[in-house]
Amino acid sequence: MDLNTSDLSHLLKTNDPPNSYQEACLVQNVEALNKEIEKLSQADAADPKLEGLRERLQQHRLLLSSRRRIPLETISEIISNTELLPVLDSNGRQRLKQLCLVCKGWWSAAQVTHRLWSGLSLEFGITAPLRWDLIADWFRRSGNVPRTLELKMQPHSHSKCNKPEKCFLASSKLAKFLAQGPSLTRLSISSTNVRCLENLLHSVKSLESESTPCSWDSISSLSISCPGTWYEDSSKFLSTGLPSALTTFELFLPSWPSAPRIPTTRIQSSVLTGLTTLHIQCDWPRSFLLATLQECTDVETLTLDLAGHDWTCDGSTISQNASNTAVQLPKLRTLRLRHLLPEAADILKCLRAPIISSLDISFGPYEGDDGVFRVYDPEGLGVPVDVGDEFANALWTFLQHGSQTTLRYLRIHRAFLRSWVYYEICRTQSLRQFCLDGSCIITICQTSL
Asked: CA–CA separation, 77 vs 19, rounded Å?
């Protein structure tokens, strides 16, 4: 039988396995071809028909190959271990589409591999709107796997954003999707205008129903990024509307205006008290961070990115009394300080963490929205920063003058560290790892801290 002209010809064009009837026909054909080849070989081993018969036999054997019958579970693992990230951007979605087109079996395997459909990274705007119904359909394929949605809003004119009903982000169907669509575990959203995000939070809140569970409140991890300009009338930006189930919160705030004044913005207190992980990047006056951290009594992992701010006192009561009435963080185990300036090292004197086990401090450069690097590295050579005695004293205060008993890991990045500070740190008996990353030890006469 010539497969190219038979009812089995479509199998040559796909990777689908044959059904039971097709398999029986192929097995029968293989037996007939073997007999015919054996008969011709005995009569004349040089018969030109033999080559054609052997090619047809090879075709039949390939269609019967076990490679066409790989179990869906195995195909699922193969797809999962390709170069697909947990959260798919446009390139990742195109790659997944190509894998689904290998054959019907691969398509079926992809449909039941829930984690392939559990993460999306999307960019949208006025000129590139999204079909939220299609996004909801995508997420429904993820079953009970935790879902992640990352949204980046394209820059656009914000002239109408001071009125929520005219704001593109708030008036789009995104608010309804977040309030009434598929439940999400993690949401990351970035906009160049803080008013857009403020309007969105109010729109979602207005769609909540007392009788129906709100999808918004299923979010346990939230990341909000709003580089650009801060508006004084946005002081209530985060005071209400945040998901009630938050345990992880990442906040990247716009640069603080140069005009000296005390920030009145406060993050929703009921949310802060339930957080276990908090990451904040801002160059705001220190009263904002101190007031925020006072509410974080359950936080276990804290990342403070000062964005090159010098941590100077802003005149508020909480700022003036920061060193005397330090913020108590009774459950904090991991503290990371990023883009720290030497003069901002006093932040360590403002925190008390009695059971901390990991401390990571980086004096790496910070590039602001204006493209200017804020760091003691004017020539951009990437050299360590001379942190001086102020940092040493602040660190030693944080470590309770050597009586700290739970610290296991300490990393100091890009710093010229005094040798006497190094030796004092090494006296901390609980310390198991001390990493000087891109740092140097310099010798200056000093007896002790």
From this structure: 24
